[in-house]
Specification:
It is a multi-pass membrane protein. The protein is α+β, with helices and mostly antiparallel strands and about 900 residues long. It is about 55% helix and about 10% strand. It contains 28 helices and 19 strands. The strands form 8 sheets. A 5-stranded antiparallel beta sheet has the order 2-5-6-4-9. A hairpin with a 3-residue loop joins strand 5 and strand 6. The protein is elongated and about 100 Å long.
């Protein structure tokens, strides 16, 4: 009966059929859908959609819209509104592009043409049913078109009326204001500078600062308890409206529910629509400088006070970012800003350590001995076809190596271990404060619906054990087998990375031999350095190439594994990509730090790889080679990423504008409507790549910091640019993403925590086995405090049976006797190294646990605010308080007790 009544109402409005595919006829000015026209679809029901029963035929409920063909059409209102100038647009889209003259059919391929026509007809049925069900769900719809001879772009503007907003606000547990309170200033640095009476150049006054409230979950029955509930136009924020509209779009069916034909996301994948997005609040540019700051729209405020390069040293307006983009994006920028601020002390200490190394280079006794040795130390050849050489030839590299291998670097590695864990502990406090301030501390992902791809490919339907609703189902056994197969693919790709690493090692050996054979003394002494730098550049190119290939492969693998929800899909994808990128970026530095020079052997008994002698550390030691690799890989990757982030969005936006200009042609108005301007922008690709870039950077500045004290400085400079690049993309170049709630940075925090602990272990081994710190320390303890004779002590004599080019005696760096056997000092040094690793790790991890214990995750002042807010929510939303008090007051009467028992 409900369906029949709906058909009668629809028949009363039947004047023009909304056909989003049809574009064969020329649109006149008084016809629906022209550039000067629009149609308004009134709501029929305010309850959830009930159409689309399992036994109902698809496409039997076409949608009809009213079109007033008589009289002059109203002019388009300014702003994000319907044609009545009052109804706010909750979302721009869905939209799609259609051919102007229809698709051309090839004479020789009738089957392909028939298949294409059937596909288009199916899409049209899905689209009509979907739009009809949106109307049934209570959304207001209005259509616009951009028409040209060859192409027509259709836009559907959506808006949720008050009753729909109220219904979904309670279902989605949106937070509603109970009591206003001062908006706190949560910048710790600003508070410290104020106490010290130091002017804060980073502070700025941003207009229209959002009001802070005590809030609780919205309830329709307690509407009068919430502030501003009488103002229906402005009670719900724009981001809340967007969330409600997108929720309806995600829930609405367009076909058979038993086939999981539900949601706009799957329609986008099927090509029925090309985009769905909320509209920006207006242009970001400020044409008139005389506009008062408090009259700027939200997008202009973000551009003027945040996204411009001139604001690089100012605090980020996090409350404004959250109000405009939602909590998920705001937390990313809060974390990036917090991390960048914490990089400042790390960069200062690292620069101080590097400068102290420069200032103490003259007191390096081993370097002096090398430079003044002349021809005293005749060194063994570095390759099978090389000649002997004097150790004095490496004087410049010996001096330079001290910059990366002196006692200050040991202190800095300990400092960075403490810094990493302290940073994470204080971020947890900052995150808790922001989560409460933005009303998402108690936010938990609701029971997620199946992903559109999962719903489309699942072979069966089963009842959800939580909701009881029939949903697409994929057997767990089959999924596990697919995940195991995907794991094998990951292992194979990691083996490919190892193969490329071996290739780079062989390239380095070939280049070194070529440098030795040039005959130039300068090239011969710098052969290892030239080979290392050039191989690092080749390695960087391979890293970036393999990263692109594997990311695409990981995406296909993760889809093939059939993860049910989007959260499961994102976690699996993040794990795959990070594991691969970790090995991809860090395998070469790990090789240089812990394997290069360990399996060289000794004269007459050299180790080989594919017929080539195993690599030995260069004249300045392995740490200087590690520093060169870290500099080229880390800084090179940052520069390339920044160039890509600056250029690629502009190229994509230019192409989109060019395509739109071709569609508009001469009909384009002087000022395109908001939905057309936003459609010209590029789609927001999410935060995965942004997080991955910064997390890999965090690994560089913590894991190998003992070899590269300037890493935090380069990271700081990069992040200052990264904040503004990302801000400009989101404000100016991206379509506005749907606001999503989040209470933290998700799985990335656990990855950062693992990296901080790995850095402690790696730095301990780096200092113990790669640095010369412990050999020098043990030599000072046993022999000479001023390291006199240390160079001679570290050089062994070649065995008596070794003869090369009439040279019966040469030296090489090792703690061996004349027979090639390790000396007692070697075993003493090994014991010291192992003892240092154990002591270093235990002391550092003990202090880290103490820091974790002393720094609470939630500040004490915040706990009081949380208790206060819960008390207010309890007082405001308590049901039948007066009746409860009366019943308690009369509880002494037996009759009353009996009556109350009967009532219940």
């Amino acid at each position: 009966m409900l369906r029949n009544r709906s058909s009668e109402l629809l028949m009363a409005d039947r004047e023009v059929l909304l056909d989003l595919d049809y574009a064969g006829e020329q649109h006149t000015a008084d016809c629906y859908g022209s550039l000067q026209n629009g149609g308004f679809i009134p709501p029929r029901f305010l309850a959830a959609a009930t159409a689309g029963d399992d036994d109902e035929e698809e496409g039997d409920d076409p949608i009809y819209v009213h079109c007033d063909k008589g009289g002059r059409q109203p002019s388009r209102p300014k702003g994000n509104c319907f044609r009545d100038g009052k109804t706010k647009i909750g979302s721009g889209g869905p939209g799609r592009e259609g051919g102007g003259d229809g698709a051309e059919q090839g004479e020789g391929a009738p089957e392909e043409a028939s298949r294409s026509e059937r596909r288009k007809a199916q899409q049209a049925r899905w689209r009509d049913r979907f739009i009809h069900n949106l109307q049934t769900a209570g959304l207001l719809l209005e259509k616009e078109e951009t028409v040209s001879v060859k192409k027509t772009i259709h836009y559907m503007k959506l808006s949720a009326p008050w009753d729909v907003l109220v219904y979904y606000a309670e279902e989605l547990a949106l937070r509603a204001p109970l009591q206003a309170q001062p908006n706190p200033d949560i910048n710790t640095s600003d508070q410290v500078l104020r106490k010290l009476c130091i002017p804060n150049v980073m502070a700025q006054s941003v207009p229209n600062k959002p009001v802070d409230y005590y809030t609780c979950a919205f309830r329709k029955s307690k509407m009068e308890k919430f502030l501003g509930s009488e103002d229906h136009e402005n009670y719900f924020t724009n981001t809340q409206r967007h969330r409600v509209v997108y929720e309806i779009l995600s829930r609405t069916s367009y076909g058979k529910r038993k086939r999981a034909e539900v949601g706009v996301a799957r329609l986008l994948n099927e090509g029925v629509f090309t985009a769905v997005f909320p509209l920006h609040e207006g242009p970001f540019a400020i044409k008139d400088n005389e506009i008062p700051p408090d009259q700027l729209n939200q997008r202009q405020v973000l551009f003027h006070y945040w996204a411009r390069w001139s604001r690089w040293y100012k605090y980020q307006p996090l409350d404004h970012i959250r109000e405009y983009f939602g909590e998920k994006i705001a937390i990313y920028f809060a974390w990036l800003g917090f991390y960048t601020a914490w990089l400042l002390p790390a960069a200062v200490v690292g620069t101080f350590v590097f400068v102290s190394g420069i200032m103490t280079m003259g007191s390096n006794t081993p370097a002096k001995d090398i430079c003044t040795s002349g021809g005293h130390y005749l060194m063994c050849p570095l390759c099978n076809t090389c000649s002997v050489w004097n150790i004095s030839d490496i004087c410049p590299m010996a001096k330079l190596g001290y910059l990366f291998d002196h006692p200050g670097t040991v202190f800095f590695s300990v400092f960075m271990s403490f810094w990493a864990v302290t940073f994470l502990e204080y971020w947890k406090r900052k995150n808790a404060t922001l989560a409460h301030h933005w009303d998402c501390m108690d936010f938990h992902e609701e029971e997620e619906r199946p992903r559109p791809e999962f719903a489309a490919m699942a072979p069966a339907m089963e009842h959800n054990p939580v909701t009881g609703v029939k949903e697409p189902y994929f057997p767990k056994k089959d999924r596990m087998s697919r995940m195991l197969t995907g794991s094998m693919v990951i292992v194979i790709m990691l083996c490919v990375v190892m193969i490329f690493l071996v290739t780079v090692i062989m390239y380095r050996g070939i280049v070194s031999v070529m440098m030795f054979h040039t005959g130039s003394s300068m090239l011969r002494t710098q052969a290892g350095n030239i080979a290392n730098i050039s191989s690092s550049m080749v390695n960087l190119a391979l890293i970036l190439l393999m990263g692109q290939v594997y990311t695409a492969l990981a995406e296909r693998l993760t889809k093939w594994e059939m993860h049910r929800t989007q959260t499961q899909y994102e976690d699996a994808f993040t794990f795959k990509v990070f594991i691969f990128q970790f090995v991809n970026f860090y395998s070469s530095p790990f090789y240089v730090a812990f394997f290069k020079g360990r399996f060289v052997g000794y004269p007459g008994h050299y180790g080989t790889l594919f017929g080539m002698r195993n690599e030995d550390c260069g004249p300045g030691g392995c740490l200087i080679e590690l520093a060169e690799q870290l500099f080229i890989i880390m800084v090179g990757k940052q520069l390339i990423n920044n160039v890509q982030e600056f250029v690629i969005p502009k190229v994509k936006a230019w192409k989109q504008r060019r395509d739109m200009a071709a569609v508009r042609g001469t009909q384009a108005p002087q000022e395109p409507p908001r939905w057309e301007e936003d459609y010209e922008l590029i789609e927001c690709e999410g935060l995965f790549e942004e997080y991955l870039e910064i997390v890999l950077q965090f690994g560089f500045i913590t894991i190998f910091v003992a070899a590269f004290p300037l890493a935090p400085l380069f990271a700081l400079l990069n992040n200052w640019a990264e904040v503004r690049l990302d801000a400009h993309k989101f404000v100016c170049e991206y379509r506005r993403p749907v606001a999503e709630r989040a209470q933290n940075i998700g799985v990335w925090f656990y990855i950062l925590d693992v990296l901080s602990h790995v850095s402690v272990i790696v730095n301990a081994f780096l200092i113990a086995f790669t640095s010369d710190f412990l050999p020098r320390l043990l030599y000072q303890y046993k022999f000479h405090q001023d390291l006199t004779g240390y160079v001679n002590f570290t050089l062994a004599y070649s065995p008596p049976d070794y003869n090369y080019a009439n040279h019966t005696m040469c030296r090489y760096k090792a703690f061996r006797d004349s027979n090639g056997t390790y000396t007692l000092f070697y075993w003493e040094l090994l014991a010291v190294r192992l003892g240092f690793i154990i002591a270093f790790e235990h002391v550092v991890f003990f202090v880290l646990r103490a820091i974790d214990w002393m720094v609470p995750d939630v500040p004490g002042s915040l706990e009081l605010k949380i208790k206060r807010e819960r008390y207010l929510a309890k007082q405001a939303l308590a049901d039948n308080q007066e009746a409860l008090l009366v019943s308690r007051g009369s509880a002494t009467s037996p009759a009353s007790n009996t009556s109350a028992g009967i009532m219940s």
